[in-house]
Design brief:
It is a single chain. About 30% of the residues lie in helices and about 25% in strands. By secondary structure, it is of the alpha/beta class. It has a seven-stranded mixed sheet, sandwiched between helices. Helix 5 links the parallel strand 2 and strand 3. Helix 2 crosses helix 5, helix 3 packs across helix 4 and helix 6 packs across helix 7.
């Protein structure tokens, strides 16, 4: 831990829950598909899989995956976001916690898929990124998948410049025993071209 606040907290002050939920409600009402991430993950899963939504925010993806028959746990450090998730799906498991200290939350591991969507990795506290990747890898079963989505330039981030590169991210994954399986440019599965501004990555946990 660095003692620094995560970049998300610096941007929002930890009070963005209702505003964030309202944004997606408006998108849905205008006809946009807001379930692209959930559909992407569901295509990778067997029925009744265990999913950890790391940086779950208001629970949009975890709630959708639960509706599709999967067992979903959400973790987020922003209590305002979790308040929305708990209001929308009170029966699901929502945990308040720092992803850099995931091992303190009592999770028993063995997840089939861990998801870190919505620029979770780039918005972590500076210096904690590799630790968080290790923590996420630890709760995966052997062969389980880490699925991430992240902006790689200012056009795809709420930041003036990207705080990490794909090369750095893949290195942290390799150190954590994760192997890159697939990489796309969108949650719809468009092909990723080197130098692209957004990447959806699928890494799997190797046998230890």
């Amino acid at each position: 831990m660095t003692g620094q606040p995560d970049r998300w907290a610096e941007l929002t002050g930890g009070q963005a829950g209702d505003e964030y939920a309202r944004r997606f409600t408006e998108l849905a009402e205008s006809g946009h598909d807001i379930h692209g991430e959930a559909a992407f993950c569901a295509a990778l899963l067997k029925p009744a899989a265990r999913v950890l939504d790391a940086g779950c925010g208001t629970g949009r993806i975890a709630i959708r995956l639960a509706a599709l028959g999967h067992s979903c746990t959400g973790v987020d450090v922003d209590s305002s976001m979790l308040a929305v998730a708990r209001r929308e799906a009170p029966a699901q498991e929502w945990l308040l916690g720092d992803l850099a200290r995931l091992d303190t939350l009592g999770l028993d591991g063995g997840f089939d898929l861990v998801l870190a969507a919505g620029n979770v990795i780039p918005l972590l506290a500076p210096g904690t990124e590799s630790l968080v990747v290790r923590q996420l890898a630890t709760v995966l079963r052997t062969g389980g998948l880490l699925v991430t989505g992240m902006g790689l330039d200012a056009a795809h981030l709420p930041l003036p410049e990207p705080p990490l590169t794909l090369t750095e991210f893949d290195h942290w994954c390799a150190q954590a025993g994760l192997t890159l399986r697939q990489r796309y440019a969108t949650w719809s599965g468009d092909r990723y071209e080197r130098g692209g501004g957004y990447a959806v990555s699928v890494h799997s946990r190797s046998a230890t």
